[in-house]
């Protein structure tokens, strides 16, 4: 890691001009487009994800995000006029978004490509220099970033993009060209760098260097440490799900969508359903339909050689899930088979899981679904209120009143009626609350996340009459209303 990148705020050319941000965003888009096969191959190695899942959850959303930033960069970053007192009627008062400077992005392994690329695009669009720390467990994806990022932010590529940009916009070499020259020398050195190694190395880095902003996705315990280290230097930080099935819900649909949420990426997503609170009147049917859903997906319970079913990220995490299955006091409904060397865990459902159970004390991050019986929506709400605030709440009910009640009486990063997971697949902003996350990103929110707001006042010098009241001697006991 080149420590010079951390001095970007003192550079004469900080923040990166809007036109240069476009060039860097185009480089990111070219990376995703030109290296799509390599990206798919890396994610297949790391997570065993089917190509369709990879395209849907890791690549298409990244392309869309970058294209939206390119399309709206000017309007999303322009200063906005602010309300002003009467005394400022001759003046121009605005608020602008100013890049933090140096952003550190630390990714989890659950979506190792998307969790780097989307915030990276937002940070660059805001005008920052970026250090990315890919997940060390996703070794193939990690290596992909190490190999490709220097190429796509290298001097030769930058020069070609710059020449193309200048020709396209008919920039005269004797006028505007010169303002872009300073960026030629620092682009491949400091706009984006890759930090590799274990979490311990990241902690050492945080102790040694001071970043202007830290973006972290991963486990809450690691997030607490990141926040603690960031607090020592007052560095802002972004950190990153219950399901209620009502008696009025379409049970077949609910089971189908919940089980899909658990098998997608083998449940290794921050937005995967953690547990189901199922109304007692419909629980038997819900459990039956969970099995029917797997019959529909795979023709039965997946086996090691089943296609279109992923793998756990590592043998260590497979052992962790195996231990959860062994120690839970819940009643096994289906699944339960684990093959550690193959990093394979069958979709597994337990019912009658007690609140103190191991499945309820830790984030599962795998294809294990605990189902808890409740007698009413109010009981389910009380249960959720006693847990940490989640990134999302999923409510299956055909009654609008039930959903309104859940929306009113729960705190979460998002809430969905009659589906799971899809918050990250839509154009809405995404984030958590308290332990589940600080801050929000996606689209315009990404630029706002990686910037701080600065007030700007351009005062008139034409006539000082309106301002003379502030100068001594004072002729009134109290000032007039501004």
Descriptive account of the structure:
This protein has 16 helices and 19 strands. By secondary structure, it is of the alpha/beta class. Strands 10-13-14-9-8-15-16 form a seven-stranded mixed β-sheet, with helices on both faces. Strands 5-4-3-6-7 form a five-stranded parallel β-sheet, sandwiched between helices. A three-stranded antiparallel β-sheet has the order 1-2-19. Helix 3 (51-77) runs parallel beside helix 4. The longest helix is centred in the first third of the chain and has 27 residues, at 51-77. The N and C termini lie far apart (53 Å). Mean pLDDT is 80; it is low at 8-12, 171-188 and 425-438. It comes from Echinococcus canadensis. It holds the Pfam family Aldedh. Residues 17-148, 190-452 form the Aldehyde dehydrogenase domain. This is Aldehyde dehydrogenase.
Please state the structural category. Answer: alpha/beta
Count of alpha/pi helices: 16
Main beta sheet: strand number and arrangement?
A: 7 strands, mixed
**Distance between the ends:** 53 Å
Provide the CATH superfamily of the largest domain: Aldehyde Dehydrogenase, Chain A, domain 1
User: Residue ranges: pLDDT <50 for 5 or more in a row?
Assistant: 8-12, 171-188, 425-438
Percent helix: 40-55%
Strand order of the largest sheet: 10-13-14-9-8-15-16
CATH architectural label of the largest domain: 3-Layer(aba) Sandwich
The overall pLDDT, averaged over residues, is: 80
Radius of gyration: 26 Å
| Share of residues in strands | 15-25%
The coarse silhouette is globular
Stated plainly, the CATH topology of the largest domain is called Aldehyde Dehydrogenase, Chain A, domain 1
Domain module count: 2
CATH class of the largest domain: Alpha Beta
Find the count of extended strands (DSSP E, 2+ residues).
19
Query: Multimeric state of these chains?
Result: single chain
């Amino acid at each position: 890691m080149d420590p010079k990148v951390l001095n970007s705020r003192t550079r004469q050319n900080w923040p990166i001009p809007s036109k240069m941000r476009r060039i860097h965003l185009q480089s990111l888009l070219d990376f995703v487009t030109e290296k799509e096969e390599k990206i798919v191959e890396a994610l297949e190695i790391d997570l065993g994800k089917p190509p369709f899942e990879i395209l849907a959850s890791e690549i298409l959303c990244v392309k869309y995000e970058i294209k939206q930033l390119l399309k709206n960069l000017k309007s999303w970053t322009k200063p906005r006029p602010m309300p002003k007192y009467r005394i400022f009627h001759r003046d121009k008062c605005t608020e602008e978004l100013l890049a933090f400077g140096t952003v550190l992005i630390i990714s989890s392994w659950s979506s190792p490509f998307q969790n780097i690329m989307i915030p990276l695009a937002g940070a660059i669009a805001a005008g920052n220099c970026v250090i990315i720390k890919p997940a060390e467990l996703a070794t193939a994806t990690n290596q992909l970033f190490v190999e490709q990022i220097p190429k796509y932010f290298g001097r030769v590529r930058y020069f070609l993009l710059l020449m193309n940009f200048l020709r396209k916009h008919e920039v005269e070499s004797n006028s505007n060209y010169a303002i872009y020259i300073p960026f030629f020398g620092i682009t491949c050195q400091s706009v984006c760098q890759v930090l590799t190694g274990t979490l311990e190395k990241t902690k050492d880095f945080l102790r040694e260097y001071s970043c202007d902003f830290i973006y972290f996705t991963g486990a809450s315990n690691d997030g607490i440490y990141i926040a603690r280290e960031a607090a020592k230097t007052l560095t802002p930080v972004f950190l990153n799900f219950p399901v209620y099935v009502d008696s009025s819900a379409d049970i077949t649909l609910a089971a189908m969508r919940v089980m899909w949420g658990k098998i997608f990426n083998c449940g290794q997503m921050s937005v995967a359903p953690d547990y189901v609170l199922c109304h007692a009147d419909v629980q038997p049917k819900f459990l039956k339909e969970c099995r029917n859903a797997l019959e529909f997906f795979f023709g039965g319970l997946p086996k090691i050689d089943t296609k279109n079913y992923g793998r756990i990220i590592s043998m260590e995490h497979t052992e962790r899930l195996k231990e959860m299955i062994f120690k839970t006091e819940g009643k096994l409904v289906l699944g339960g088979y684990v093959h550690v060397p193959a990093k394979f865990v069958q979709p597994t459902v337990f019912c009658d899981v007690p609140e103190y159970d191991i499945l309820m004390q830790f984030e599962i991050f795998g294809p294990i679904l605990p189902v808890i019986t409740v007698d009413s929506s109010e009981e389910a709400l009380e249960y959720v209120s006693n847990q940490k605030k989640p990134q999302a709440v999923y409510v299956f009910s055909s009654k609008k009143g039930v959903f309104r009640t859940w929306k009113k009486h729960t705190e979460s990063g998002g809430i969905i009626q009659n589906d799971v997971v899809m918050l990250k697949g839509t154009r809405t902003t995404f984030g958590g609350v308290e332990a589940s996350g600080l801050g929000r990103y996606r689209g315009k929110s990404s630029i706002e996340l990686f910037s701080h707001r600065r007030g700007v006042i351009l005062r008139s010098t034409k006539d000082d009459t309106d301002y003379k009241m502030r100068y001594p001697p004072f002729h009134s006991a109290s000032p007039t209303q501004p």
